[in-house]
Amino acid sequence: MRVREIASQLPFVGEQSVSQRLAYMHADGLVTRADVRRRGTYQLSALGESLAPVHRTLSDWSRAHLPLQTMAEAERVEDALGRLNLRHTTAVVQALGTKGPIRFSHIAEEIGVDRPSARHRLLRMQADGLVGRAGSHHGAPYVLTEAGLALGAVYATVEHWSDPFAGRRASSTPRPAAAATRTHTGIPLGRDDARTAAALRRSTAAPNTLFSHAPQPQPRVPVAATAQSAPGRGR
Questions:
Q1: Under 8 Å CB-to-CB from 187, ≥6 apart: which residues?
Q2: 3-state SS track over the chain
Q3: pLDDT tens digits for range 188-220
Q4: CA distance 111 to 131
Q5: What pLDDT is attached to residue 141?
Q6: What is the mean pLDDT of residues 143-148?
Q7: What are phi and psi of 149, to 5 degrees?
Q8: What are phi and psi of 212, to 5 degrees?
């Protein structure tokens, strides 16, 4: 579909916003273009199509644990992402899943932020239904709600989806694609696809029932490699 055709299906989004979003998705390898010079049609890449299980898991989690009104599946996924992609949210969920219930001051220490930042994040997560208090008295420790505890499936699905690309960041030296462990065998490891791994941030805390895989240190990508892979993004 062309930009105008896509925008016509999304009356609540302007055509310019759709065009900008597609440009970012193209740079991240989620869509391909038939003819870049002539502003040809867009379609999902293999990487974009592989996101279907992630979207289904997010939608299922939202439908089962969040008291939301009837809405389109795409809107439900966007709502779920809005609750999970804010900075330090994953770290708070991991800390509570490992050591909860935890008092406010200890959470701030666990996630490595100042108290005002930790308080702001906890208040937002409480409003989003991810955390609650273990009691009604002042200073009661925080705990994960049922919705927060059920995030294990969501994180596992995202990690499974990202595994083939996270491995490429671990080394700055080229290696044959066959040497990598890949779960999406139908997805080519092209230049655009590798950048998708940048979306996943791993915590340094110990693994638990919510995070079943031990995190691995991720070295910085050399500037030369970044410039070659994303000439128009300035990363």
A1: 46, 47, 50, 164, 193
A2: CCHHHHHHCCCCCCHHHHHHHHHHHHHCCCEEECCCCCCCCEEECHHHHCCHHHHHHHHHHHHHHCCCCCCCHHHHHHHHHHHHCCCCHHHHHHHHHHHCCECHHHHHHHHCCCHHHHHHHHHHHHHCCCEEECCCCCCCCEEECHHHHCCHHHHHHHHHHHHHHHHHHCCCCCCCHHHCCCCCCCCCCCHHHHHHHHHCCCCCCCCCCCCCCCCCCCCCCCHHHHHHHCCCCCC
A3: 433 333 333 333 333 333 334 555 443 444 445
A4: 15
A5: 94
A6: 93
A7: -65, -30
A8: -80, -10
Tokens for 104? 């406010």
Residue pair 61/82 in contact (Cβ under 8 Å)? The answer is no
Amino acid letter, residue 217? P
Nearest to 222 by CA among 160, 159, 169, 176: 169
Mean pLDDT of the region 109-124: 91
- What lies within 8 Å, CB to CB, of 117 at 6+ separation is 88, 108
Q: pLDDT tens digit string along 15-69?
A: 999 999 999 999 999 999 887 666 789 999 999 999 999 999 999 999 999 877 7
Mean pLDDT, the chain, integer: 75
For the record, the structure tokens of 98 come out as 């490992």
